[in-house]
């Protein structure tokens, strides 16, 4: 609606100062002509807004003008009170600040919106951690946070996965990202983007040198690039397996990114429940099988499937079956021997 758009322009200008008309048009998903018409409407309503042409021009408010009108809708108020529990704010030491900020927001809300916002905060909870994730290694974010907020280069001592020795790097931070409860430092190292897990940073020291980021590149863009590199990593081995259907939901949760597509029915197998019965409802019933496709970087990684025991069988390729057979034989040898005293 036009009224919402006018308020959005006013708040953006109040927050950002001078903003190019093209950026306003892109943010509001309208044309530049519409932006200029909205600016005229604000001016006619008494808002001291003006437009400057030229390369460094834009739309701005007269210096010193402020408005305390929040214009917050009921949905916007509710959205602010859906927050992650024991997550990002705790790690950054901002729990008390968050609570204080929410109390101030609640006081500033229009009276009709307050009950819905308070109820939303009590009835909806966002927990960023995965099931059965176990305790996470602690990460000291103080120095990393200082580096990303003060725009200084950072010297870190870092332990890569599978290594015990520490390596020393000088990096140019873009920012911190929390992904599924794990914190990452996103930085350039020798001009190339790289991810560093915060809990593997043994020490971090700010240097006196200013950060050397690539011009015009922001954190969100670098994160998308690095995430694609992780998610689109080419698979060295494609594996086909069959799994008992009563274990399929668990397998989908655990295997996650290794799955290359949805499970399919094993040829000639009728899914349990199509007759209206669940597995085990009738004597002699056994759950059917489903076929899954997986991708692994190396064939030895197929050993991940051992956790499903005889509820899963690797069908191919042959080298993957050999890895599973060798691993099963090694386990048999371990448990066939007498236990140590």
Automatic annotation (TrEMBL):
<dbReference type="InterPro" id="IPR051534">
    <property type="entry name" value="CBASS_pafABC_assoc_protein"/>
</dbReference>
<dbReference type="Pfam" id="PF13280">
    <property type="entry name" value="WYL"/>
</dbReference>
<dbReference type="InterPro" id="IPR036388">
    <property type="entry name" value="WH-like_DNA-bd_sf"/>
</dbReference>
<protein>
    <submittedName>
        <fullName>Transcriptional regulator</fullName>
    </submittedName>
</protein>
<dbReference type="InterPro" id="IPR036390">
    <property type="entry name" value="WH_DNA-bd_sf"/>
</dbReference>
<feature type="domain" description="HTH deoR-type">
    <location>
        <begin position="2"/>
        <end position="61"/>
    </location>
</feature>
<dbReference type="Pfam" id="PF25583">
    <property type="entry name" value="WCX"/>
</dbReference>
<feature type="region of interest" description="Disordered">
    <location>
        <begin position="258"/>
        <end position="287"/>
    </location>
</feature>
<dbReference type="InterPro" id="IPR026881">
    <property type="entry name" value="WYL_dom"/>
</dbReference>
<dbReference type="InterPro" id="IPR057727">
    <property type="entry name" value="WCX_dom"/>
</dbReference>
<keyword id="KW-0804">Transcription</keyword>
<dbReference type="InterPro" id="IPR028349">
    <property type="entry name" value="PafC-like"/>
</dbReference>
<dbReference type="Pfam" id="PF08279">
    <property type="entry name" value="HTH_11"/>
</dbReference>
<keyword id="KW-0805">Transcription regulation</keyword>
<dbReference type="InterPro" id="IPR001034">
    <property type="entry name" value="DeoR_HTH"/>
</dbReference>
<dbReference type="InterPro" id="IPR013196">
    <property type="entry name" value="HTH_11"/>
</dbReference>
């Amino acid at each position: 609606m036009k009224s919402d758009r006018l308020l959005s322009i006013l708040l953006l200008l109040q927050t950002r100062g001078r903003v190019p008309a093209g950026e306003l048009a892109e943010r509001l998903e309208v044309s530049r002509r519409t932006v200029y018409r909205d600016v005229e409407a604000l001016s006619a309503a008494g808002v001291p807004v003006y437009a400057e042409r030229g390369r460094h021009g834009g739309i701005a408010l007269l210096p010193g003008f402020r408005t305390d009108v929040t214009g917050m809708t009921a949905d916007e108020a509710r959205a602010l009170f859906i927050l992650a529990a024991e997550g990002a704010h705790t790690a950054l030491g901002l729990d008390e600040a968050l609570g204080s900020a929410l109390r101030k927001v609640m006081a500033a809300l229009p009276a009709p919106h307050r009950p819905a916002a308070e109820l939303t905060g009590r009835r909806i909870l966002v927990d960023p951690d995965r099931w059965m994730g176990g305790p996470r290694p602690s990460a000291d974010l103080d120095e990393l946070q200082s580096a990303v907020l003060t725009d200084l280069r950072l010297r870190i001592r870092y332990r890569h996965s599978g290594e015990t020795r520490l390596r020393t790097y000088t990096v140019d931070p873009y920012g911190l990202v929390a992904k599924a409860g794990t914190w990452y430092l996103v930085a350039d190292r020798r001009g190339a983007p790289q991810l560093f897990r915060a809990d593997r940073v043994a020490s971090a020291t700010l240097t006196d040198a200013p950060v050397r980021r690539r011009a015009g590149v922001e954190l969100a863009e670098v994160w998308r690039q690095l995430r694609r590199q992780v998610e689109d990593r080419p698979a060295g081995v494609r594996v086909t397996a069959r799994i008992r259907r009563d274990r399929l939901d668990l397998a989908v949760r655990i295997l996650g990114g290794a799955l290359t597509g949805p499970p399919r029915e094993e040829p000639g197998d009728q899914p349990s429940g199509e007759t209206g019965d669940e597995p085990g409802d009738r004597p002699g019933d056994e759950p059917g099988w489903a076929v899954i496709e997986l991708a692994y970087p190396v064939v030895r990684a197929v050993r991940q499937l051992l956790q499903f025991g005889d509820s899963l069988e690797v069908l191919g390729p042959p080298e993957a079956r050999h890895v599973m057979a060798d691993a099963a034989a090694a386990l048999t040898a371990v448990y066939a021997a007498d236990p140590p005293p």
